[in-house]
Amino acid sequence: MTRKMLSSKGPRADLSIFGQRDIEVNVKTVAQAIAYLLGKSDEPLTRLKVQKLLYLADRECLDQTGFPITNDSYFHMKFGPVLSHTLNLMSGDSKDEYWDQWVWTEGSNDNNQLICVQAGNYNRDTLDHLSDFEIGVLDDVWEKFGGMEPFALSDYTHTLPEHIPTETREHLPVVGILVALGYDQESARDQAADIVNF
User: Fold this and answer.
1) Residue 6 and residue 23: Cα distance in Å, rounded?
2) Which of 45, 118, 159, 160 is deepest in the core (most CB within 10 A)?
3) C-alpha atoms less than 13 angstroms from C-alpha of 172 in its C-beta half-sphere
4) pTM for the whole thing?
């Protein structure tokens, strides 16, 4: 199937539907997306579950618009696709002052680590790096996958056509995700370039 490229030149690409953007991974957007997802849960979520929900939200946004929510880079890992910089923030391998104002972790530094949101930070007015469209994508992903156990969600991501099972850490190019979503190779490469330049 050949899919029309949804770039800034395409008829559906209204970039005003997105929240504020940085050139690289937008830590503010990621932190706020996690806060929003946690606000929909009755309890803290594990690192594994948050990773999978964010990946699926990025994937859904790519499918609908040609652009992800987070601008993160992706890797294949043992338990499915991950958002690389977000994982580094969760594990403490990367530090960011804004992240620390929104998100904290509890427990062991593994897939069972709990991700929590700082009290008082979450409400719609303060989610200024998420657009209504992006929140709608997060709502859809939560409705479909929020009730799944973390490792069941991990197993689900293993069924996605772009994922390659691995015991290590291998780069998952956004081109591969776009092709899995129906783009041809040329359109996928062009759209990946548009994402970098967004």
Assistant:
1) 19
2) 45
3) 27
4) 0.85
The pairing of strands 114-117 and 103-106 is: antiparallel
First to last CA, the chain: 26
The kind and range of the H/E element at 104 are: strand 103-106
Structure tokens at 116: 């929590």
List, in sequence order, every residue forming a beta bridge with 171; answer none if it has no partner. 75
Joined together, the tokens standing for residue 184 give: 């041809």
| 168 vs 66: CA distance, rounded Å | 28
Rounded distance between C-alpha atoms, residue 120 and residue 15, angstroms: 30
In angstroms, the CA 185 to CA 69 distance is 22
